[in-house]
Amino acid sequence: MLDDPPALSWADVCVVKDRLRQEARQSGFLAEWRELDRAAVVGTDSLDGWLGLIAMIDEHRGAAASWEIRNGDHGADDDEDVARYRCPTHRSCGRREAVTALAPPPVCRLSGAPMARDDG
Ligand SMILES: [Zn+2]
Fold first, then answer.
1. Coil, helix or strand for 31?
2. DSSP element (H, E) containing 99
3. Is residue 57 within a helix (H) or strand (E), and if so which, with residue range?
4. Which of 33, 111, 112, 116 allows an S-S link to 24, with CB 3.0 to 4.6 Å?
5. In the chain, at which residue ranges do the beta strands (DSSP E only) sit?
6. What DSSP designation does 27 have?
């Protein structure tokens, strides 16, 4: 139903993957999500595949309120003592997170691995 499908980046997928799983479960596409998840671990999934899943979920929900890609994780405030992380995957998906220094590292959902420190 979307006239203009949202452009999707690997960083987007990395950020929203867990939430997308919930959406997929509620919409009856959990099997499709799992297939993409398995493919993501070995790096054979595609952005088209993820976009296809998002489109199916949107259609299932009537697409009135289209799925919001970019209200992902809540980052830390700039003036806090923060630790910065980047995506560790082979794709270098470009995702960046800043969390309070005492918090555990965020996890890259593409690979399931903790994100790498980015102190640059
Ligand atoms: Zn990632």
1. helix
2. strand 96-100
3. helix 47-60
4. 33
5. 82-86, 96-100, 116-117
6. H
CB atoms closer than 10 angstroms to residue 57: 21
Quickly tell me which residue has 């690997």 as its tokens. Answer: 10
Show the tokens assigned to 19.
Answer: 């939430």
Ligand 1 centre distance from Cα of residue 110 (Å):
5
Give the global pTM: 0.70
**Cα(95) to centroid of ligand 1, in Å?**
6
Tell me the per-residue pLDDT of 26-76, one tens digit each, with 9 for 90 and over.
999 999 999 999 998 888 999 999 999 999 998 888 754 555 544 445 554
| Higher-confidence position of 14 and 3 | 14
Token pair for 64: 């009135």
Cα 5 to ligand 1 centroid, rounded to whole Å: 22
Q: How many angstroms separate the alpha carbon of residue 35 from the centre of ligand 1? A: 18
What's the CA-to-centroid distance between 14 and ligand 1, angstroms?
A: 5
